Task: structure prediction
Amino acid sequence: MTSLSSFLNSENVSPNLASIFEAIHKASVTVQNEVSRAGLGADIFGAKGSENIQGEQQQKLDVYADECFIREFRLCGSVAGMASEEQDHALQFDESLTGEYVVMIDPLDGSSNIDVNVAIGTIFAIYKRLTPAGENLSDKDFLQAGIHQVASGYVTYSVSTQLVFSTGNGTHMFTLNPEDRDYYLYKKSVSFPEDGKVYSINEVNLDDFNPELKAYAQHCKDKRGENGKRKYTGRYIGSLVADFHRNLLKGGIYVYPATTDSPKGKLRLLYECNPMSFLAKNAGGRGSDGLQDILEIKPTELHQRCPFYVGSPIMMDEALGNL
Ligand code: P6P
Result:
């Protein structure tokens, strides 16, 4: 079996970038250990009693995961600073100001699923810093378009714990071995199936959908295969990472459009839409805000949101109006 470190070495990933993956490895093992003990007295259920900048109730595990990843990124030496869904402002690591990278992270996506034992995940994006090494970071280091990502990925804490990432040369999947706590290659260069049968949309928002998306949702309900059976089925887990992971392997599309409750969309550009779109692009799919390639958007705010479509190319074309 190919371990994460030997794979990174074989892909000629630089030692500094590899050290960030080592930090993600360590932090994700710590988080997984806590997640796996949910209900065994590990008091990780429920709300912490605090809110993040989004005004969302922080779950105890959100904060725990955030602290784990901050600690490992601070220690690894290659990360000069990071932005997190759980932190109002970007963090600068004064002890690593020579670090050549910055990281954006959603430490725990889908945290509403923690209490009901459903898959959750960590999403990350890695960029080269723009300010000179050794100098203080500035907004421009974090407000980079997604096309400038050096790497991105996610960890899904589910039936098994899997790490999925790309450094721009394919999208690869690793599984955590509970025996030695190391990640081993599961699938190299994964590709979205061109088309798929699964659409992941919360249809409670149907009345808010634009005409193209309404037509697409109806198309998915009406379409029948040659055998006269329905072509599509809906699967919506409430964890972007879990829906994306299934769609990547089996074909499918995930859509979270602008809605009345979330007029700019719910998902965050920097640490959800961009990293997932970078993975999709490296797996033959793509991400869009409904109008443009997500990776082309020039961010203006750390926690800005956008409508999000991501998945198999044919389904993306159809959902974006090319039925
Ligand atoms: P809703 C989790 O909070 C998340 O950001 C995604 O992981 C998930 O797909 C979506 O929001 C669920 O949102 O409004 O459908 O419950």
